[in-house]
User: Fold IS3 family transposase from Dyadobacter sandarakinus.
Amino acid sequence: MKAYQRMLADKGITQSMSRKGNCLDNAVIENFFGTIKSELFYLKQYRSVQELKTEIKQYIHYYNHDRIRLNLNRMSPVQYRTHHTNR
Assistant:
């Protein structure tokens, strides 16, 4: 959209899209957003944006370091990458 592209340029923001998008391009992050909403966001009312930001940072650490994934051989993402990088 030309108006949106102009607004980005006026604010000094470089648009990163260089080709027509594909719905599969966003599948991984869309899955993560669905997970974080159901496991964190919908379970509590936040008193401030800062409280929400803090809990999101904590959740991302938990998601990467402690949350077990069955499709990663019952390891967290960090455990899985470390296990397969050290071989």
The first helix runs from residue 2 to 10.
